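Hey,
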Amino acid sequence: MALEICTYPNPVLAKTAQRVEEITPELVQLAKDMSVCMYANQGIGLAAPQVGESIRLIVVDVTGPEQREQLITLFNPEITGHAGEVESEEGCLSLPFFNCTVNRAAQVTVRGQDINGNEVTINADGLLAICLQHEIDHLEGTLLLNRVGRIKKTMYDKKVKKLDKRRQED
């Protein structure tokens, strides 16, 4: 099933996502559909709230969208450790035409469940660490806009309103 990306200011993006108690065949299919959607939209990560599902599920592949060699699917991911700090230039599929620099942990340890329900622990650094943090932020209802100053957020809000007005006129 083709999924659509929810964009700001969709309310689902501001909610804390619910824990997944049981990995059902429907949720496995959702995860697969999310990876297809992520690749189709030239992304390297996608959280379930970004496709309108307020559950704790992310897909990440920092080799994508071209190579598609390291797809990671995590249910109920949580950061259990972090070290260092790095500045990261980031964009987001839910925030069209918006990029900003944010501070992230340089290394993270993330625990969750894979698509088969097995407990997994990932020790990540570099782009993978940044991407995992970004997607887990979505599960907490945190967007990049929450990590920038008021002026930059206000400017983006105005841009979104202009784009919405143009769409309504078309």
